[in-house]
Amino acid sequence: MVESAKTSIFTTSEKKSIYSLSGILFFRMFSLFLLLPVFSVLAMDLSGATPFLIGVAFGAYGLTQGLLQLPFGMWSDKVGRKKVIVIGLTLFIAGNVLGAFADSIHWMIVARFLQGTGAISSTVFALIADLTRPEVRTRANAALGASIGIAFAFAFGAAPFFGEWLGLQGMFMMIALLSMTSLVLVITTVPNPESRPTLPQKTSFWNMVKIVWNVPTLRTISWGGFVCGAGLSSTFFLIPMILVQHGYERAEMWKIYLPMMLAGAVAMILAAIFAEVRNRFREVMLFGIVLLFISLIAMGIGQEQDRLLWFVVALFFFFMGFNVFEPIFPSLVTRSSTEETKGTAMGVYNFAQFIGHFFGATVAGALYVDNFFIFLLLLALAEIWFFYLTLSFPNPEKRKAKTEEQRISETIIPEA
Predict the structure, then answer these.
(1) Which domains, from first to last, does the chain contain?
(2) I need a surface site. Which of 29, 137, 227, 239 has the fewest CB within 10 A?
(3) DSSP per position, 120-147
């Protein structure tokens, strides 16, 4: 009993891995989230900007991110995680430097495409799995998820101020500097895995994808990732522009974003607790989809009545729904995949999520002016299909009951 309790305590190496990878994810995701709530309104000042081209620039990052998640995840399964992360961060930095000097919407689109080639999300989560034991892996993933959540909160709170102070180009330069910090952390602090499962070198790219795609739960999660990605990019492409068009000052947007983040944090915590403790992943997912659908209804009413309040309501409901899925999707992906294909499985999920990001912003930009309700209909159909798939989603098997010593040990916070 004592021995089993000890195994659930982080080792020194595991603590180092968690802290360093959490720091890398924090800087990386803070950089991305910093652009999300202000990009569409700041990009209006670029030469040649139109709603459609701003939408393409907004979503361009997601296209290359999505297309490269699978190759990078598979590549990391074969050649090692750290090497792939270093290359990805270098490409990401190059894209941000180009964005810092872009003076037209066309160059900004190129910069966003290049920025998206740093597709390392799936590799980072696969690396933490390599560097931790199964009995502590859930808490390790939770620590990485917490760093993303903190980055999200700080970025949304700071974005309106940085947007007014630095402008779009200045924000890209700051992101490049923060990304260099992540690169230094990877090289100097992240341990190398002692060993990790590997697939035979003859295993082809498509065979690895088929192994993952043949798992029904992973297909449902991937579609959910697509829906959430499309909703995230389209919502934060449209609503900031709508706020500005209704006379709302860019520097005052924090007054909306701050309570929105608090509501999202409450939804995230409650969803994670209910899903993990009571093993009600399916029920939590269905509730999250209902929140997303209510957001669409509110957005439609806002467009019909031309009232800003309804768009703010839509933003709140979307953000709460989106945050329902954030803590549980990565956990479900790792539970549904084998040790040998974890990198590829995360790649499939992130591929779907980022492709959704691209399509959401691009379609919203194309339909925003003249066909707003067609855009809402397309998103509604995607959410309805997600709801249908989730009705038959199996909750994971419950883990074995833990001893009192195990439960006590899992409350211990890793020491600094």
Answers:
(1) 13-190+208-394 (1.20.1250.20)
(2) 137
(3) -HHHHHHHHHHTS-HHHHHHHHHHHHHH
**Pure H helices in 121-253:** 121-130, 134-189, 205-213, 216-245
Q: What is the pLDDT of residue 405?
A: 40
- Short-list 28, 128, 115, 178, CA closest to 357: 115
SS3 content of the chain, % helix, strand, coil (to 5): 80, 0, 20
Q: What are phi and psi of 47, to 5 degrees?
A: -60, 130
The CA distance from 375 to 359, in Å, is 11
Displacement of CA 340 from its chain's centroid (Å): 23
Q: Is 152 exposed, middle or buried (0-12, 13-18, 19+ CB in 10 A)?
A: buried
- 89-131: pLDDT as tens digits: 999 999 999 999 999 999 999 999 999 998 887 788 778 878 8
Distance CA 207, CA 306 (A): 51
Structure tokens at 93: 């930095």
Predicted confidence at residue 195, as pLDDT, reads 58
| Helices 329-336 + 342-367 axis angle, to 10 | 140
The C-alpha atoms of residue 302 and residue 235 are separated, in whole angstroms, by: 13
Residue with tokens 């944090």: 265
User: What are the residue ranges in the chain where pLDDT is below 50?
Assistant: 1-5, 199, 399-416
Amino acid (one-letter) located at 353 = Q
284 Cβ partners below 8 Å, 6+ apart? 271, 274, 275, 324, 328
CB 13 within 8 A of CB 131: yes
Task: Give dist(CA 22, CA 24) in Å, integer.
Answer: 5
pLDDT tens-place string over residues 353-385: 989 999 999 999 999 888 999 999 999 999 999
Burial-class residue 340 by CB neighbours within 10 Å (0-12, 13-18, 19+): middle
Q: How many CB atoms lie within 10 A of CB 47?
A: 11
